[in-house]
## 1
Amino acid sequence: MFKRYEGAAWEERFLPRLTFPEIRALPKDHALVILPVGAVEQHGPHMPVMTDSLIGEAVITRTLERLPEDADIWLLPPLPYGKSNEHLDFAGTISLSASTLLNVLLDIATCVKRSGFRRLLLLNTHGGNMDLLYVAAREIRISTGLMVFYVSPGSLADLTDLCSEEEREFGIHAGDYETSLVMAVKPDWVLPDKRVAEFLDVGDFAYLTLEGKIRFAWVMSDISETGVAGDATLASADKGAIILDRIADALAKALQEISTFEITDVKTRPEKSIDKGCS
Ligand SMILES: [Zn+2]
């Protein structure tokens, strides 16, 4: 018995599980198609290079279990590879180039549109994909007319009571947050004794920050010896389970909101603005 595709997400909402006449007949007005985009890249000495893609699949699996039965929300096969060239100094990193990933996303979106859908969500679990996905989302909007949405699901969970301030600001890779999640969903894939803590040092700079107002371009070997940016030693499976629950709760609600969104409703008509005045 082949066990990979189990549970509501994969049995009930996995679009390519259906036949083409079934897909053709689906109601599309409020349908949302989700494309998870992950990465295969080093995640320190303690976690698998599959980490980001694994987290994306775990998040969407848990989230789709929480949807009401009548939600028109569909999952595409997750794209395991992302743009990870900042990690190429570490073995096991398999990266697409920026132009390849952009073209793959455009091709998939074009087919989503041709199948009759109107909304596409890019669900991203790798920080290094972010800038490109913002560009891709707009390019898809322009070239296909689809309504396109973007989310990094980690941003939906409040972590203030779970992770330190330092971790929330600088724990961008293989630290407490990601390690806790993988310990929760695939404990045997983590080597707990190999966990380390490593933070980069930008304390003396007022303007230069890692992801703030003035940024410097970096690759991982510029900012980390171990491939970790964060404190993986603080991670626990319990914490990961709480984080996953919070993300799934918020994302399930967000998906339903997105499927009611119509971009034509966003623009305010001029007479309304004039009525309101400036004050
Ligand atoms: Zn990661």
## 2
Amino acid sequence: MSNFNRTTVTAALIYANGPIHIGHLAGCYLPADIYVRYLRSQKKEVIFISGTDEHGVPITIKAQKEGKTPQQVVDHYYEVIKNSFAEFGISFDIYGRTSDPVHHQISQDFFKKLYEEGKFIEETTNQFFDESANQFLADRYIIGECPSCHQPGAYGDQCEKCGTTLSPTELINPKSTLSGNAPVLKPTKNWFLPLDQWQNSLEEYVASHPEWKSNVAGQVKSWLQEGLKPRAMTRDLNWGVPIPLEGTEGKVLYVWFDAPIGYISMTSQLTKDWETYWKAKDSRIVHFIGKDNIVFHCLIFPAMCMAHGDYQLADQVPANEFMNLEGDKISTSRNWAVWLHEYLTEFPDKQDVLRYTLTALSPETKDSDFTWADYQTKNNSELVAILGNFVNRAFVLIDKNYNSLVPTKSAGTGLEESLIKAVKEIPSSLSNALENYKFRDALVYAMEIARIGNKYLAEAEPWKLIKTEPEKAATVLNYAVQLVAHVAVALEPFLPFTSQKLFKALGSGSLDWQTIGDFNVIAEGQKLENPGLLFEKIEDEVIQKQIAKLQESKKQMELANKKVPEIKETTSFDDFLKMDLRVGQIVDAISVEKSKKLLQLKVDDGIRQRTILSGIAEHFSPEEVIGRQITFLANLAPRKIMGVESEGMILMAEGQEGELVFLSPSSPVWNGGKIS
Ligand SMILES: [Zn+2]
């Protein structure tokens, strides 16, 4: 860091098409905020930039779904997102928007410079077009099977399952999300950035950063190994930054072209010195993002900046992996998430408890899992039992015995010496962890001060000394107050609300990083103001309520997302009568050799035992079905399947989880009974 005089910290621009959940916070906003608060506390020059990404197909799709204009959607969510970040203590210096005219101007200037210097390839290519919607299908307007991991429902620009970046024509069985129809190919002109021409420079750039996190370096290297291809920087779409060229109506800049420029345009709205933060060699750029944005920040945006020539490349891109929730992937469409705006309402004044838990469970090197049980444990066993307990004991004793004034200390004993020594080692470990983006470790170091404080009070027992050795008691409590100040400074990046309470209680105002370990930072005789209990125990009922809420909303979403198949064409009563539906009983069942799906059943139809092959082997074992009464179609023409003649068909329905369910009579019926 020594060559740099200032730091430009960015946190991912989130699409303004929905609220914030814990996965977003843990993925990039919270680590970014911790990092920035740490730099500020060190009196380093730093700016913290983020905002909403208001272009791109996710916005237009949301607008279509809700019957609104894209502008209405982004206006609404910009406010929701901005407010919940502010309430949660994410301390952006500016929270901007990419629909801002300033952003349009700067993005267009960027594009125009590249265009005029011949940095793009103009190419007419065949793009998917939805004939019924009369629209080209950019990015997320097209879904299909991922060619890499074969997950269905991968988007035209990216597979969310395996993270592969795609172009729409690579999808297997592509479908338009507008009409559900298979699209046709139609020629259209777009401007491509020839990433292949920047391959060598990008390789050098990546190689010059051996300090990048292994998850980031791994993804970037696998991209480079595959070989970069030209990538379209424009789209056939009506929502976005218009291409600043004649005759390009109906086309806009690709959202991943203009979004990273958003960091720059937002900086320009924050300060007149914006160019220094992006162009000066002694400015250090750090992008905090989630793992799905790695390629855009480590390869595509750097290639754009290289092509442009004026901008510095990022020095660090400390991307996190994903956070899961209760063992399952966080999902907006299944409503499997803890939403920040709901948390803030349901847990008033508990921002720091969530900040603490999310940091302790941060997905720094691999995916992690948030559980409400962990949240409860972190609160009750760490925040209440360690931090809250230590601070409370110190303040209560001083209130009671010293009229809320910091007592006078005299020469310490061995206990104080080892205390000073223990705290002295913390700032460097803490700084080291923070500067290397190891926020989980850093939190442990910061909390260590509270642990030391607890241990110190337990060993020194000032409550006993007050009567027997008052000078010694005063000394212990003076040291305890100094420790409260140290913990307030060390925890400020993580728990800013708690730290502010402590600074107020100490009458000190915010303190600098350098005061950690300074045992004279709070003056003797200083009036203290007991902050009361910093944290309260969270009971089981509260946790169970949250888990029940999650389960319920998931169930509701699943039911809502369930598509009831359309009713078939009307049939006549006579046609219905032709079908002979009966009740029978499975008397024997065996697996069919070489078939994963089929069971060979013997069904008692009241007259004889007939053989029916049924595709239920993946749902039932032969033993499970023997003895069951079932319904079957008795007069279906016999068919030979895998060499066995099947005489009829068992009727099945699909259960809630996609499992198969027999249609059995609600009370026993004689075998061969007719259904009508
Ligand atoms: Zn995939």
